[in-house]
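hey can u check if this looks right to u? its 161 residues, i copy pasted from the old doc so theres a chance i mangled smth
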Amino acid sequence: MGSHSSRDVVRLAIPSHPRYLCMVRRVATEAAQHVGFSPDETKHIVLAIDEACSNVIKYSYAGDHTKRIMIALEMADGGLTVRLRDFGRKPDLGQIRSRRLEDVKPGGLGVHFMQTIMDEVEYDVSPRIGTELRMVKRRKCAVEDRGDEGIAGDRSQWKRI
């Protein structure tokens, strides 16, 4: 795991075109690895972020590639917080849901992936223009990750990383 202060933030501003999502995936991969997520957890986190950006392009901006998506990746000892900010059409929060998994067809699972992978997914539609999506993925206790079950002591006293 890399060395970082209690909270380091990396910010990106990308055009709302799918060709720039590869850059977001690269930075998100580095951020998740820096915090100490496993390769599998990292792949899942990156998938959730990619789906969120794709949804902004498709729904908030209706495919308009001239807009901007602002992304902040906050790396902390306890995990990763991702904030995506768009300046497009606000979602109807009552309508945000994935399609039924029984409906076998392409697309429509981005929200399902985001909600399944991340520990928290919250939409803030309070800005005058656009929406901010906040997603959080917390790390498990490092001792649990190593499987050190034989260490004496109260688990509640162990630090989370």
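Residues 70 and 117 are 21 Å apart (CA to CA).
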